[in-house]
Amino acid sequence: MKSVIRIVVGSTNPVKINAAKSAVATLHPAAEIICDGIKAPSGVADQPMTDAATRQGALNRVNWCRQHAQADYYLAMEGGVDLVAAQAYTYAWVVIADNHHICLNRSAHLPLPAKVYQALEQGQELGDVMDRMFNTVNVKQAGGAIGLLTQGHASRESTYTAALVMAAAPLRFPELY
Length: 177
Prior knowledge:
This protein has 7 helices and 6 strands; from the N terminus they run E-H-E-H-E-E-E-E-H-H-H-H-H. It is of the alpha/beta class. The protein has a domain of 121 residues: Maf protein (Alpha-Beta Complex), CATH 3.90.950.10.
């Protein structure tokens, strides 16, 4: 009989839910994964513009899930933007937690065009800016800016999944951490 692992994701965005389920399935290939997405508040701006705010948003979401749901794992992803040496990048902070540990990781960085960053500085969200630029609809629930700017060779989901699998290393080898 398959073991059952229940996970709760701090978002109802299908990209984040699919990434979480895929990451946990990678870590537990013989298990049945039951996954629920819930609208967990980030406590930060809709478009975090600093590394600290992005990290805090992911932590806030996972902590909210831990307080309001019962699961084996709680996962959250927060996409953000920051400047590094005058270049704007988008990336995410991801968190995977159980009832005893919280593990964080940052995803790969995607450089953003200057005009995209300028729109973000004016208070717009990355998904909305990309939708206008590429004539798409709700790209943040699809491949995201990552999918558009890599012409589909990477996606928001694949980036989140890889970051979550790596974030889980301390859960896999607690004696090393």
